[in-house]
Write a structure and sequence with these properties.
With 211 residues, the protein is α+β, with helices and mostly antiparallel strands. The protein is built from 10 helices and 5 strands; from the N terminus they run ααααααααβββαββα. It folds into 3 domains: 1-47, Ribosomal protein S4/S9, N-terminal domain (Ribosomal Protein S4 Delta 41, Chain A, domain 1); 54-99 and 197-211, Ribosomal Protein S4 Delta 41, Chain A, domain 1 (Orthogonal Bundle), CATH 1.10.1050; 102-187, RNA-binding S4 domain (Structural Genomics Hypothetical 15.5 Kd Protein In mrcA-pckA Intergenic Region, Chain A).
Length: 211
């Protein structure tokens, strides 16, 4: 499946806010958004001074922001929205819940990676097991009571050896629990909207797809 391979910093600049797509670098002075917070391109500075954005433009930007935070392409994002429509409850909250349950996002939430992009790469390289079986699909949706663990073979790698001490200082969301000693995490329950700390106004996304 295709994926975005361009500059992550350009995505933050286009949305006009930090999306924390590059992990620790986003918290350092090296962050490109700190130096150039205007939109990318030769007309980026001028675009920052445009007049009021239309309702459609606001909805589009919110949808794009959600896609970029979770690293999902348009076709897949639209599929997640259709899934959210079929479930009971608020469509926007269902959408965010589905995105949170992606395997790459859960790996990131456990602290096994500093960004969702890095988590995606680690999953693709086969470093994790889901309920005892090797999982190499970042878009796989986990369920309540699932267990995600670093493979025994992968724990011998320098990356995971160094990571184990750092995990002791990681704070996981309430719907997850982490066993640092055994390098594994448990999905305690499905996340509620209050437990999802992403700066997304999901109602705007619902309005965008309901046009």
């Amino acid at each position: 499946m295709a994926r975005y391979t361009g500059s992550k910093c350009k995505l933050c600049r286009r949305e006009g806010e930090k999306l924390f797509l590059k992990g620790d670098r986003c918290y350092s002075p090296k962050c490109a958004f700190e130096r150039r917070s205007y939109a990318p391109g030769m007309h980026g500075r001028r675009r920052s001074f445009r007049r009021k954005t239309s309702d459609y433009g606001v909805q589009l930007r919110e949808k794009q922001k959600a896609r970029r935070i979770y690293g999902v392409l348009e076709r897949q994002f639209r599929r997640y929205f259709k899934m959210a429509l079929k479930h009971k409850g608020l469509t926007g909250a269902n959408l965010l819940q589905t995105l949170e349950l992606r395997l790459d996002n859960v790996v990131y939430r456990f602290g096994f990676a500093t960004s969702r992009d890095q988590a995606r790469q680690l999953v693709l390289h086969g470093h994790f097991e889901l309920n005892g079986r090797r999982a190499r699909t970042p878009s796989l949706l986990v369920k309540a009571n699932d267990v995600i663990a670093v493979r025994e073979r992968s724990r011998k790698m320098t990356y995971f050896k160094d990571l184990q001490s750092a995990l002791e200082h990681v704070t996981t969301p309430e719907w997850l629990s982490l066993d640092v000693e055994n390098m594994q995490g448990h999905v305690r329950s499905l996340p509620s909207r209050e437990q999802i700390d992403v700066p997304i106004r999901e109602q705007l996304i619902v309005e965008y797809y309901s046009r």
